[in-house]
Backbone:
C-alpha cells in the first residue's frame, strides 16, 4: 500500500468514496461528471500548504482510501500546531482488513513530522462504530464539539 497526495484525476474516486455511506449520500452530489465545485475545492486544498488530501493505493495503484489532514497554527500551546483529520473513507470491499488503523498510524506519523503537538478529529454522533474505532486507537472524547450550519 502506498500513501500519496491526491491529484486532480483522483477527485472523482475520492468523492465517490465520500458519497458511499448513509450520511455521505445525503450531503455529496456524486455524479458523472462531477460538479466543478469539487475540482475548485481540490485546487484550494492543493494550493494550501496546511492542507493535505491523501489517497491510499493498493498494489495495483487503485485508490482504496482517502483522508484530509489540516494543520492549524495558533498562538495557544506556545504557538503550537494541531493536526485535524477529516473525511476518512475506505472503499467498501476493503473495510474490515485493518486498513483504517494503518491510515491513522500514517496520519499520526505525518502530524509528528509536521511538528503538531496533537491530532484531533470529529465524528458524527450518528456513527457509533466510528467512535468505538477511534477510541480503540487511543483518541479520547475530551471536548464537546458544536456546529452552526449555514444554509
Residues:
Amino acid at each position: 500500500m502506498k500513501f500519496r497526495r491526491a491529484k486532480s484525476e483522483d477527485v472523482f474516486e475520492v468523492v465517490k468514496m465520500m458519497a458511499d455511506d448513509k450520511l455521505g449520500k445525503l450531503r455529496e452530489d456524486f455524479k458523472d461528471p462531477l460538479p466543478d465545485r469539487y475540482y475548485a475545492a481540490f485546487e484550494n486544498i492543493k494550493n494550501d500548504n496546511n492542507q493535505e488530501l491523501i489517497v491510499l493505493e493498493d498494489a495495483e495503484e487503485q485508490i482504496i482510501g482517502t483522508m484530509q489532514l489540516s494543520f492549524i497554527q495558533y498562538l495557544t500551546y506556545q504557538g503550537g500546531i494541531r493536526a485535524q483529520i477529516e473525511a476518512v473513507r475506505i472503499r467498501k470491499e476493503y473495510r474490515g482488513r485493518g486498513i483504517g488503523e494503518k491510515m491513522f498510524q500514517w496520519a499520526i506519523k505525518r502530524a509528528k513530522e509536521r511538528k503538531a503537538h496533537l491530532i484531533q478529529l470529529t465524528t458524527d454522533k450518528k456513527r457509533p462504530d466510528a467512535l468505538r474505532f477511534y477510541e480503540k486507537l487511543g483518541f479520547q472524547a475530551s471536548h464537546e464539539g458544536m456546529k452552526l450550519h449555514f444554509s
In short: The chain has a mean pLDDT of 95. The chain has one domain: 2-136.
